[in-house]
Specification:
Oligomer: single chain
Shape: globular
Structural class: mainly beta
Number of strands: 39
Distance between the termini: 46 Å
Number of helices: 7
Length: 731
């Protein structure tokens, strides 16, 4: 990762995970008493509580209402857009412990480009890559990306569902969503008692403990007025990379619901995420490949550190004074503290036979985001036609402080094997660099009118006006810049039957030139990048719901890329453009009583249409090249077999096409196939034993990578074959 893509804030260590989790698990177990509980079968079939609007495991959820693709709470069959709704229980049944694993293995056309420099939170979709083009939400609220880094959320234990909206989405969430949106929806408070726990052990010292508890509070005195939900998940491992390959994390989610009447509800929640990920930045290629003798080597320094701490507090209010009016308000506060201390670039030197190491970096992030969103939905008639209309506003303020050592420049070299990693130099420590304050206000509206019982027309618009103020903490220089971002869409949906839909849409979105809240002065004069999409598609159910399917075709064009001025390579201007066009398919099919097939396929062609850059004093055109980190083929396939009454086998295949790490398409990362397998044994109605095998055939593959120099390339490798045994119980 280059310096422009790296970033960080330090927090103290939490209490030992095992002790904390065991204490938490023991408490609810002792208090459960003789209350009616939810079994594992009920958790899987009813979507954790029986709410018909919640996502169902192993399903495309075409009839599940969501608020990611539309604030009107439509189902995918009513929405003119491509939307995946992945149940959290699906992720847990398939052994997917992270958001990245779930999104890339279950949703359509999404791949991860996770690396420590982006917080392991970057994706690509529909030809566009990175956290400034694939926006991430938590419970419907967006994160403002600082220095290209997203570190929260990361754990799937507390997830009710993940909704992935593909294609430009600025009409809903503002700039930074040309490729799509990933919305992680946490588990909600419930009045039905729920208690579940999971313990996992695996290879490379892996250990996981998790607890889920929910139910009514004070029923005898207050009735169905108060409910709660608490989720705790801790994970650790020694790691497969040596040294500094170990990791540990803790995720805590707690929510309290106060419902004084059927038409009024308040939900107060707090989420905490703490991570110490593996201090691994990649493996250098030797003569174009990764030799077996260095596959598990880490070339970072011995005292490397990475810590990320995120806290998210929100108060949600929902009021329905009548059947035709719903008012929602969300007030929230997010804090992020991040710290990196690493040597982050490695390349093999053919002349010396050594590994050259550079980018000795220490970085701190301190970020606080405070905001409020209010919207009101009205249902009625428009010129005699049934109509739904929602309008609202969104305001927030973000303070960001960046501390770094970008002044420091040092390189070292170590042997391929048998090396001393060394320590980070004390004369290269970080110092305050800059601080920004960003204030943002937006207004939005969306409307859906039913032209007939089969035909609907959907429109939407959003205007964002962010103002950035940046101060250089070394020189005292300052600048301020205000932007205007407009997004809108028009869509039509035709339902030939209640179980099928044909749709078309046109949408316009914006992307920041870089992470907006950390934009530097050299880029401040550029306009926001703009993009538009045309999409057509169809979706439906057949055979009494045994088969669900979707198909979509699209074309996206993005303008105002940064480009070098022809003949003046030291100057930049916005004249570039990038485009993509593709086809996406998805299906879920129970083709026999004991068999189910779930799969998706994304085929696309993406290219730079106009994009020049200065290289060694000369202007080079990359027109026609495949964009960085964008595969042109993605596929997932899951086969589920209920082998016997208490036994279920799951096999997953993931295919990711070839990608490039550089604009010139010379640093290639090969396509790869991964096979994962899960075998479940239902020991009792309340307990399940699972055997999970990841990367069954031990494929060597790269999640992300970069071109270090003209002859050196660095790959960040995915995990080798590993095995875990999990035991899940409810009470």
């Amino acid at each position: 990762m280059s310096r422009s893509n790296l970033h960080a804030g330090s927090r103290g260590r939490p209490a030992p995970l095992c002790g904390v989790l065991l204490a938490l698990i023991a408490g609810p177990a002792a208090a459960a008493g003789a209350q009616e509980t939810v079994t594992l079968d009920q958790l899987s079939v009813e979507g954790e509580g029986g709410d018909p609007n919640r996502a169902v495991p192993n399903s495309l959820n075409l009839r599940t209402r969501d608020r990611t693709a539309s604030r009107l709470g439509l189902t995918p069959l009513e929405t003119p857009a491509s939307l995946d709704i992945v149940s959290g229980e699906t992720a847990r049944l398939r052994g997917q412990d992270t958001i990245a694993e779930t999104v890339t293995q279950d949703a359509t056309g999404i791949t991860t480009i996770a690396a420590p420099g982006n917080g392991n939170g970057a994706f690509s979709s529909r030809g566009f890559a990175g956290p400034n083009s694939i926006q991430q939400l938590y419970d419907g609220t967006r994160f403002y990306v600082g220095a290209n880094t997203v570190t929260f959320p990361f754990d799937t234990w507390n997830v009710e569902r993940i909704e992935v909206l593909r294609g430009p989405s600025s009409v809903l969430y503002g700039d930074g969503a040309i490729g799509g949106v990933i919305n992680v929806v946490p588990k909600k408070p419930v009045f039905v008692p729920i208690n579940a726990a999971r313990a996992v052990v695996g290879t490379d010292g892996t250990a996981r403990l998790a607890l889920d508890s929910g139910g009514a509070l004070g029923q005898a005195e207050f009735g169905d007025t108060f409910a709660y939900r608490v989720n705790v998940s801790g994970n650790r491992a020694d790691g497969w990379i040596r040294p500094e390959g170990d990791f540990r994390n803790l995720a805590v989610s707690a929510a309290l619901l106060f419902q004084p009447s059927p038409d009024l509800a308040f939900t107060l929640s707090h989420d905490l995420g703490y991570q110490e990920p593996a201090r691994y930045w990649g493996t250098p290629l030797v003569e174009g490949r990764i030799p077996d003798l260095i596959r598990f080597n880490n070339y970072n320094v011995r005292d490397a550190k990475i810590t990320w701490a995120d806290n998210w507090t929100q108060l949600k209010t929902e009021w329905s004074p009548s059947a035709d009016i719903t008012v929602r308000n969300t007030a929230y506060r997010l804090t992020s503290r991040r710290h990196w201390l690493d040597v982050e670039q490695y390349s093999y030197n053919r002349g010396t036979g050594l590994v050259d190491r550079g980018d000795y970096l220490e970085i701190y992030h301190s970020q606080e985001q405070v905001g409020d969103r209010l919207d009101a939905t009205l249902r009625g008639d428009l010129f005699g036609l049934p109509n739904q209309f929602v309008a609202g506003f969104d305001v927030n303020h973000i303070d960001f402080r960046h501390t770094n050592n970008f002044y420091f420049d040092q390189t070292t070299s170590v042997p391929l094997t048998g090396y001393d990693p060394g320590f980070f130099p004390q004369n290269g420590r970080a110092r305050p660099a800059y601080a920004t304050q960003t204030s943002q206000a937006s207004v939005f509206a969306e409307d859906r009118v039913l032209l007939s019982d089969r035909l609907s027309f959907l429109t939407g618009v959003r205007l964002d006006v962010p103002t950035l103020h940046r101060e250089d903490l070394q020189t005292g220089s300052q600048f301020e810049k205000t932007y205007h971002a407009l997004g809108y869409r028009f869509g039509v949906v035709y339902n030939p039957t209640p179980d099928s839909a044909l749709y078309a849409q046109y949408s316009v979105a914006t992307d920041p030139v870089n992470s907006l809240i950390t934009l530097n002065q050299s880029l401040a004069g550029f306009r926001l990048a703009t993009g538009d999409q045309v999409e057509i598609g169809a979706k439906g159910l057949a055979f009494d719901g045994a088969l669900e399917w979707t198909v979509a075709g699209y074309r996206i064009v993005k303008d105002n890329l940064i480009s070098a001025v022809p003949g003046q390579p030291t100057l930049s201007t916005q004249v570039g453009s990038q485009s993509s066009q593709g086809l996406e398919l998805a299906l879920g099919w129970r083709f026999a009583p004991a068999w189910r097939l779930d799969g998706n396929l994304a085929l696309l062609h993406a290219q730079y249409d106009r994009f020049d850059q200065s290289v060694n004093g000369a202007t080079v055109s990359y027109a026609g090249n495949q964009p960085v980190d964008v595969p042109e083929r993605l596929a997932n396939l899951w086969l589920t077999w209920d082998a016997a009454r208490d036994w279920t086998a799951r096999v997953g295949l993931q295919n990711v096409g070839r990608v490039y790490s550089d604009f010139g398409n010379t640093a290639r990362r090969p396509a790869y196939n991964l096979v994962n397998a899960v075998l479940d044994h239902q020991v009792t109605a309340e307990s399940r034993l699972s055997l999970r095998v990841y990367n069954l055939f031990d494929r060597v593959y790269a999640i992300s990578g970069n071109a270090v120099n003209a002859v050196g390339t660095n790959w960040l490798l995915g995990r080798p074959r590993s095995v875990e045994v999990a035991y899940t119980v409810t009470w």
